[in-house]
Design goal:
The chain is of the alpha+beta class. It folds into two domains: 93 residues, no CATH class; 210 residues, no CATH class. It is built from six helices and 13 strands. The strands form three sheets. The protein has a seven-stranded mixed sheet with strand order 1-13-2-11-10-9-8. It has a four-stranded antiparallel sheet with strand order 7-4-3-12. The protein starts with 10 loop residues before the first helix and ends with a strand. 43% of the residues are buried. The model has no long low-confidence stretch (mean pLDDT 94).
Length: 329
Amino acid sequence: MTYSAGSTIVATDYNGFVSDTAGANVNDVWAAGATDKGWGQTALGTVSAAGTVTATQWASLVNTLSSMGSQTSTALTSRTAPVAGNTINILAALNTDLINVTTNRGNAAAVGSQFTGWSGTSAKTSATGSGSSAWTITFTHTVTWASAAAARYFFNAGGLIKWQVGKSSTGNLADAEWNDLAGTLCGAIYISGRVNGAAQTIAGTSYTGTTKIGGTGSPNALTTSVGWYQLTTSDSLIYRQYADTAPYTGQYIAINAKTAGSGTQLVLTTTWVDPGGSGTGSSDVISGGTAPSGVTLGTAPATVVSYFPPSTTYLTNTWGTPTVAATTT
C-alpha cells in the first residue's frame, strides 16, 4: 500500500481500507462479511483503478469507521472527516483502528429490548408423575430467522438468546425441591455467538458462548465456550443442573442445543427429569399451575426462551424479527 504522508492517495489505498486489505477492512465487518464477520449494513463502494478518490468517499469511510468504533466500544484515533474543496491530509492509524475494530467485532455497546412474543406452549399446567415412577417433561423452543445471513448478523452484532425456568406451585411433597431447583439453583442461561472464538462484551457484561447469570447452583454441565458458531446440527448438552436436597438429588434440568434449517434456526430442547424412586416419606409427583405470560413466569413448571436483539443505535436492523415457537410434552 502506498498510503503515507506526502504521497498521492490512489484508488488502491482507499479500496484497501474499504474492502481489499485482508483481515482489516470496513466491509468485512460492516457489510455482509462471512461467517462470524458481517453486520449486514450497506457496503461502502470502491473506486475504479483510474478513478479519483473524493472527499465525500473519504468522509463515508471515516464516519462509518466511527460508527463501528461506537458499536463495539473500541477506542479510535481522533480524526475529522474530509470536506469537499479541502486538501485531504493523511488520516493516521486507519489500519490500526480497522484491525482493532475487526478484533472487537463481536462486542456491542448495548442491546435492544427483550422480545416477549413467543408462540406455543412453554408450561406443564397439569400435575406430572404417578407414585414413585420416573418421568420427563420436554420443552422444545425453536428460534427462527428469515435467512442464515440474518442469523449471522444477529449474533455478530451482539444479539443474545435468553433461557429461563420457573416453578412455584405447591400441593405435593416433591414441589418444594423442584421449586428450589427451577427458581433458585438454575438462574438464566444466555447464548451468544462467541464471535471470533472469544467472549463478547455486550452492554458491559461478558458472554462466553453459554453463560449462566444468577442462580445459586453449581451446574453439573456448563459448556461456557460453546455459542452459536460452535453448535452443529446434532444436539449438544450445554447445561445441566441437579437438585441439591435428598432424596431428590437425582432430579435435574438440562438443555441440549443445535442448529437447524440450514443455519436459520436454533433449537433448544430442555428436559426436566425425575428418575423416580424417591422413597418412603417423599413423592415423585409435582403440581401443575398457571402458564407464563410473555417472559413473566406463572406457577406451573415452565421453560421460557426469548432474546435481546442487537441495538440499532449505530446499526440498521438487518437481522429482522426472529420468531420463537415453543412446545411442551
